[in-house]
Amino acid sequence: MRVRLRDLGFGIGRFPVGTWNAITDVAGVRVGHTTLIHGDGPLEVGKGPVRTGVTAILPHPDVFTDRVLAGSFVLNGAGEVSGLTQVVEWGLLETPILLTNTMAVGKVSDAAVKWMTRRFPKIGNDDDVVIPLVGECDDSWLNDTVGRHVRSEHVYRAIEQAASGKVAEGSVGAGTGLVTCDFKAGIGTSSRRVGSGAGDEYTLGVLVQSNFGVMRSLRVDGAPVGELLEPEFNLDRRIVNAGSIITVIATDAPLLSSQLVRLCKRAALGIGRIGSFAAHGSGEIIVGFSTANKVPRVTSRMTATLEVLLDSACDNLYEAVVECTEEAIINSLCMADEMHGQSNHVAPALPLDRLWAILGRYRDAFRPTSAPPSSSAPPSSSSSSSSPSSSSSS
Asked: Which pLDDT does position 391 carry in this prediction?
């Protein structure tokens, strides 16, 4: 059975988590997945095996009519979030955020346009045109990515099934075929409740589409997990670091676009804490939005009043987003089973029993002598998934 980091008895940082420890702890935010898994054996372009999908993040039910403030940061640009130029220019987000594989960006963007114009028929007529936000990671180690198996109905399903509450993690949606530090990974999420210092409390959540790094670099809460595990894994790996990570930040703190950019920059520190060095062929792209203020598309007035958190009150948010990003990536690893993909490529699952033992040893080494010993029990044996042969959605 796969479990999250906190179910192993460990957490990252000092801030309390939200109810679900997920990006959906930010009120109004919803997440949906469409997962595509079918076929086994040698790669046949256009036929499979297929290990891919779509993930949709909705900031609130009607983001086109009531836009939210947004910002972004690119640590290394060997990746893509289409539509990001307008977000950077305006500081506004007006579409769902969609995640998929590299070769499907165009198809997903096209499907998002079709979905939005059906829901909002005035787009391109009485209203402005729309440019969807679509991020990607390269899943070609496990997936027939050139076959471009993502279709419009998969995008519609991810958007329409998006929900609040618990978020599926690991090999789901846009994370289905992804690998992090040579282990199976994918989608991960985490959240924090943060005080401003003036009595107000805000929620911040992160969702990652994680697909970067090499095993020797993997660190978890400072422990050199990858370095210790690497001698135990004699397997074929991606020859080049064809990875990336898309990070999406949501918060109900009233931040301006410029402040959200600064928040996105701090998320890159969380990626680095896991072991990323932003390799030449890796794309680390971060998008953030705040649900606190809505900027209406249509209004009889030509001004809008915004609530703004002072810059001097943002430090806790900066610290929290580093914690959230690190834990979200670890959750993507903890929740993903071993996967066999195209041409019998294998992405092994991170062994949770070994992770538990390593983290326990390092925690006990730094525990004050007056503290009681850990009472956590090791996880049960990790289950491994053989290559499923049917398409599924979640």
From this structure: 44
